[in-house]
């Protein structure tokens, strides 16, 4: 099969881990006789430096033509004091909106044999396997731009959601639960926020369309606590944009590192953008020590969701599992024994596993 993939490395470790994704895809192409063509475009700080905007039109156009998009990460201290419209993060929000990628799926599953990598007790983490379905193109992130008032001493951010926006993401949550263990937790702040009251109403109305899914509502503050005290109670969590952002970084603690979490940002038709949950990690950028697993697992999600390449996606996941089982890991995973490796070596072990499966078949 021929597929055209747009690569958006972005900034910091985004530029490093995107190479891992490409190496893995090349190995998959070899193994399964596919042809992946690549085109690289700038986004975020790199685009600001080169084009004076975090999201050049040429990047949007290329993504629009692609079969799928892989994104590293954006941002960094160099651009932190820029005005809002010239911040790298604006590029990321802009491409999500431009492609209408309203559904962000963030699977969180502790790798077996890595339970001790989490700072949480092993018996708490054991068996945790959940999916956060995060609304990605609405809410506070896309409210009316705030203006400073009172001589710059007060500001307003707007949290707006329409019923239609809530319905489509809630449907995604129910559908994901149907494919998994049949339980949906809707996370909101309906004891305070009007938008959350509408959100809860929609979830209640939709319940009857999905009789095979059991539903509960949890307030976001309690959800944050439950995620790290009793994570196995969750199957699918559906929630609005900002809550999903915060809860997913928190949930990464179950896996031992933010560098382990992949994500898929999807619209209705299967075209998607695949990105690790983590950011550009300025504290370790340029050192060659970033964990490539989140990016590589995002690539596996791309193969499954955009290209229906189920076996190929599974082989990548098996490769990651096998390399971790063999004790190889990057420095972000707090493991005492095993072999500490950098980004390139970790990637090479994963690629070698993929190729060895090929050799085994021949
Ligand atoms: P971050 O996710 O970049 O880093 C948080 C911590 O986790 C750091 O200590 C970092 O070293 C570590 N970490 C993250 N990914 C890692 C990996 N793959 N391997 C090893 N360690 C890893 O969050 P931050 O420091 O709050 O933000 C830095 C910049 O990234 C900011 O400009 C922010 O806006 C941006 N950001 C971008 C994205 C994105 O592009 N999707 C996501 C989050 C943050
Ligand atoms: C993420 C990031 C982004 C978000 C930032 C960089 C805009 O934190 O993808 O989780 O908040 O959505
Ligand atoms: Mn985030």
TrEMBL record:
Q: What's the catalysed reaction? A: (2R,3S)-3-isopropylmalate + NAD(+) = 4-methyl-2-oxopentanoate + CO2 + NADH
Q: Name one GO molecular function term.
A: 3-isopropylmalate dehydrogenase activity
**Family matches, as Pfam families:** Iso_dh
- Keywords linked to the UniProt accession: Amino-acid biosynthesis, Branched-chain amino acid biosynthesis, Cytoplasm, Leucine biosynthesis, Magnesium, Manganese, Metal-binding, NAD, Oxidoreductase
In chain numbering, where does the site feature Important for catalysis fall? 141, 189
Q: Which residues form the Isopropylmalate dehydrogenase-like domain?
A: 4-350
Residues where substrate binds: 96, 106, 134, 221
Gene3D superfamilies linked: Isopropylmalate Dehydrogenase
Pathway entry: Amino-acid biosynthesis; L-leucine biosynthesis; L-leucine from 3-methyl-2-oxobutanoate: step 3/4
Source superkingdom: Bacteria
Record: residues binding NAD(+) = 76-89, 279-291
Cofactor notes: Binds 1 Mg(2+) or Mn(2+) ion per subunit.
SMART domains, alphabetized:
Iso_dh (SM01329)
The record's subcellular location field reads: Cytoplasm
Q: What broad class of enzyme is this? A: oxidoreductase
What InterPro entries has UniProt attached to this entry?
IsoCit/isopropylmalate_DH_CS, IsoPropMal-DH-like_dom, Isopropylmalate_DH
Cofactor names from the entry are: Mn(2+); Mg(2+)
Q: Which PROSITE patterns match?
A: IDH_IMDH
Record flagged with keyword NAD = yes
Principal location listed in the UniProt entry: cytoplasm
Listed transmembrane segments: none
Q: What does this protein do?
A: Catalyzes the oxidation of 3-carboxy-2-hydroxy-4-methylpentanoate (3-isopropylmalate) to 3-carboxy-4-methyl-2-oxopentanoate. The product decarboxylates to 4-methyl-2 oxopentanoate.
Q: How does it assemble?
A: Homodimer.
Entry-linked PANTHER family: 3-ISOPROPYLMALATE DEHYDROGENASE
Task: Name it.
Answer: 3-isopropylmalate dehydrogenase
């Amino acid at each position: 099969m021929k597929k055209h993939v747009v690569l958006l490395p972005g900034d910091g470790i985004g530029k490093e881990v995107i190479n891992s994704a490409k190496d893995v895809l090349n190995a998959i192409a070899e193994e399964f006789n596919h042809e992946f063509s690549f085109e690289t475009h700038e986004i975020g700080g790199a685009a600001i430096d080169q084009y004076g905007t975090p999201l050049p039109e040429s990047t949007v156009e290329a993504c629009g033509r692609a079969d799928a998009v892989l994104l590293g990460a954006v941002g960094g201290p160099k651009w932190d004091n820029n005005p809002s419209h010239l911040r790298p993060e604006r590029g990321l929000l802009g491409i999500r909106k431009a492609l209408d990628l309203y559904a962000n799926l963030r699977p969180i599953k502790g790798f077996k044999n890595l339970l001790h990598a989490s700072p949480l007790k092993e018996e708490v983490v054991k068996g945790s396997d959940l999916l956060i379905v995060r609304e990605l193109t609405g809410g506070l992130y896309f409210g009316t731009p705030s203006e400073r008032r009172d001589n710059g001493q007060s500001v307003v951010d707007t949290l707006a959601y329409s019923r239609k926006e809530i319905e489509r993401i809630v449907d995604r949550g129910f559908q994901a639960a149907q494919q998994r263990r049949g339980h949906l937790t809707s996370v909101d702040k309906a004891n305070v926020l009007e938008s959350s009251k509408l959100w809860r109403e929609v979830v209640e109305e939709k319940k009857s369309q999905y009789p095979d899914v059991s539903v509960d509502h949890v307030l976001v503050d309690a959800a944050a606590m439950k995620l790290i005290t009793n994570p196995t109670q969750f199957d699918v969590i559906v929630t609005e944009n900002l809550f999903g952002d915060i809860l997913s970084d928190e949930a990464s603690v179950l896996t031992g590192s933010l560098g382990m979490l992949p994500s898929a940002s999807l619209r209705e038709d299967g075209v998607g953008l695949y990105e690790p949950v983590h950011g550009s990690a300025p504290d370790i950028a340029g050192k060659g020590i970033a964990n490539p697993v989140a990016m590589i697992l995002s690539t596996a999600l791309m193969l499954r969701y955009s290209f229906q390449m189920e076996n190929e996606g599974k082989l990548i996941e098996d490769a990651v599992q096998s390399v971790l089982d063999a004790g190889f890991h990057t420095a972000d995973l707090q493991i005492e024994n095993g072999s500490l490796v950098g980004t390139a070596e970790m990637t090479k072990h994963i690629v070698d596993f993929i190729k060895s499966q090929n050799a085994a078949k021949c």
